[in-house]
Amino acid sequence: MDACDIRSSCRKKRVNKINTAPDKIRILVVDDHDASCRHAVSVLRGSAGSVRLASTAKIALKLAFSWYPQVICMDLQLPDLEGTDTIRLIRTRWPAGIRSPRVIILTGDESGLNQKLLKSLVIDRVLVKPVPGPVLRAAVFSSPGNQIMEPSGTEDLQELKHLFRSELKQRLPELDHCVSGMVRSEVAAILHQLIASAALSSESRLETSLRAMAAVCRQDFCATDLAAAYYTLLESAHEFLCRQPHESTGQ
Fold it and tell me: Of 74, 84, 131, 227, whose CB count within 10 A is highest?
C-alpha cells in the first residue's frame, strides 16, 4: 500500500467515525459578540450538545473542516468576512463523504435576507436576536426546517441584561482609558460590542448613547466632542447599572 492509499484509507476511517459517532451533537457558534456567545453556550452546552465557538470567519472555517460540526449557528456580521460568504465557502468545500451541517442564521436584522438567498445557501432557520433559549434549543435539536423565519422573543431578556451588566462593568474602565488616550480604533471596537449588547438587552436609552458616541468616532472629532458624547454615555450607563435587575425601564 503506497502513501496515497494510506491517506485515502485514513480519510475514509475519519469520515466513517464522524458519520457514525453516537456522542453529543457538535454545534459550532460563530459570532464576534461576547454576550451572544456566552448566552448561546449557556443554552446549548449540556447533555445533548458539544459547543465550540468562533469569533471570526477564519476560525470558523478552520473548525468546520477539522471538527465537522453537525449544526452551525452563524452570525451575519463578522470582522473578517460576511457570514453569508462564510456559509458559501463551507458549503462549496464540504467533503462529499460527510453529512452536510445544518446552518442556522443568527441576526439582529433580517431585512437584507430573502428566500432566494436562503435557498441558495441551504439555510435551515433564521433566528432574529435576541433569541430566547427555548427557541434556540428547538432550532438546534429539532428536525431540519425549511427556511423558517423565527420571530424574536424576550423570555431570556433578564439573562441578557445580566450578561450586559457584567460586560459593561468590565468594559467601561477600558473605554475610559482609550478615550483618555484618544485611541479611536480601540474606542470604536469597544463601542461595537456594547451597542450589540444594548440592543440584545432592549436597553434603548443606553444603545442611543452608545451609537451617538460611535457616530462621533467615525467623524474627524475633536476632544470636546468626544468628551461630551462620553459623559452622556456615562450618565446612561450609570442609570442602567444602578437600576435593580427586576426594575423596568419604562421604555
Answer: 131
- Tens digits of residue pLDDT in 139-183: 998 766 544 444 444 446 787 888 899 999 999 999 999 999 888
Give the orientation angle of helix 184-200 with respect to helix 34-44, to 10 degrees: 40
The CA distance from 35 to 201, in Å, is: 10
| Model confidence, pTM | 0.73
Would you kindly state where each structural domain of the chain is located, as residue ranges?
3-150, 157-242
- The pLDDT tens digits of the residues spanning 6-29 come to 445 555 555 555 554 446 899 999
Architecture of domain 3-150: 3-Layer(aba) Sandwich (3.40)
Q: What's the chain's length in residues?
A: 251
